[in-house]
């Protein structure tokens, strides 16, 4: 069932989104502020509650934790979420927390170890911006996709917003998926994504297929999620690509 959400604005004092985000319906960029008209931006909006933890709490209490021989990091993350998570109905707050998560995960400190030729600080900024908007997407406890916006589909959204060619999109996709393969980055990802109430779940299967991903709560059944994504993926991607044809 479609629900309603009033327009919202987030101000990031330390960052200005690329004004080309306005190529997507419902988005306005004005200096440090990013505004969203929900009825124009979202493909599906059936929920208005998001799980979050204050970033300062994550910084102080989760980031310093280490895995031990008798407790996996994911177990520590789950317990931390259970102790600190809350529900917010303010999507601007979600974006504010998400920017802190992804500007941390895609910080320039990682550049020397990414092992992807040609990646620059500007490319990491692109990854952080797209991922921040992706945080508004949502999968419910039963596995149903309840909130979807264009940023779910990172590659196609990046092409439209940043005028990227295919080799650059593929390189950024490699950096994105490197968060699964590089152990240090994987550990950082598990810790940081607790701020968004869960862990990052990739839509791709055995090979990259432009299916994006979502932060889902631990214990969320993935079967329904993957079935729905397979059913609607092409329709949603075509909508994203159509935005590029009008610029």
The run of helices and strands is EEEHEEHHEHHEEHHHEEH
Quaternary organisation of the protein chains: single chain
Uncertain residue ranges: none
In total, the number of domains comes to 1
Task: Classify the secondary structure makeup into a structural class.
Answer: alpha+beta
- Shape descriptor reads globular
Distance between the termini: 32 Å
Supply Rg. 17 Å
Task: State the helix count.
Answer: 9
How much β-strand is present in the residues?
Answer: 5-15%
Short overview:
With 247 residues, the protein is an alpha+beta fold. The chain is built from 9 helices and 10 strands. It has one domain.
Provide structural commentary.
The chain is an alpha+beta fold and 247 residues long. It has one domain. 45% of the residues lie in helices and 14% in strands. The protein has helices at residues 38-41, 55-62, 73-84, 91-105, 121-134, 154-162, 166-181, 183-192, 222-244, and strands at 8-11, 27-30, 33-36, 44-45, 50-52, 86-88, 138-139, 145-148, 199-202, 213-216. Strands 1-3-2 form a three-stranded antiparallel beta sheet. Strand 2 and strand 3 form a beta hairpin. The radius of gyration is 17 Å and the shape is globular. It starts with 7 loop residues before the first strand and ends with a helix.
């Amino acid at each position: 069932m479609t629900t309603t959400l009033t327009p919202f604005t987030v101000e990031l004092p330390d960052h200005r989104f690329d004004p080309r985000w306005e190529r997507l319906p419902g988005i306005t960029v004005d200096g440090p502020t990013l505004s969203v008209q929900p009825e124009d931006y979202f493909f599906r909006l059936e929920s208005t509650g998001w799980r979050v933890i204050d970033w300062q709490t994550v910084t102080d209490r989760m980031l310093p934790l280490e895995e031990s021989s008798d407790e996996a990091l994911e177990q520590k993350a789950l317990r931390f979420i259970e102790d600190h998570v809350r529900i917010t109905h303010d999507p601007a707050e979600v974006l504010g927390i998400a920017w802190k998560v992804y500007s941390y995960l895609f910080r320039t400190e990682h550049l020397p170890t990414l092992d992807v030729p040609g990646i620059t600080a500007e490319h990491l900024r692109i990854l952080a911006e797209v991922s921040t908007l992706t945080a508004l997407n949502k999968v419910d406890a039963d596995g149903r996709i309840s909130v979807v916006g264009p940023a779910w589909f990172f590659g196609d959204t990046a092409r439209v917003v940043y005028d990227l060619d295919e080799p650059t999109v593929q390189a950024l996709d490699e950096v994105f998926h490197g968060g699964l393969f590089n152990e240090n980055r994987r550990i950082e990802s598990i810790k940081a994504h607790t701020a968004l109430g869960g862990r990052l779940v990739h839509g791709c299967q055995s090979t990259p297929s432009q299916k994006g991903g979502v932060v889902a709560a631990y214990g969320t059944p993935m079967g329904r999620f993957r079935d729905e994504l397979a059913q609607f993926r092409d329709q949603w991607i075509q909508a994203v690509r159509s935005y590029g044809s009008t610029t």
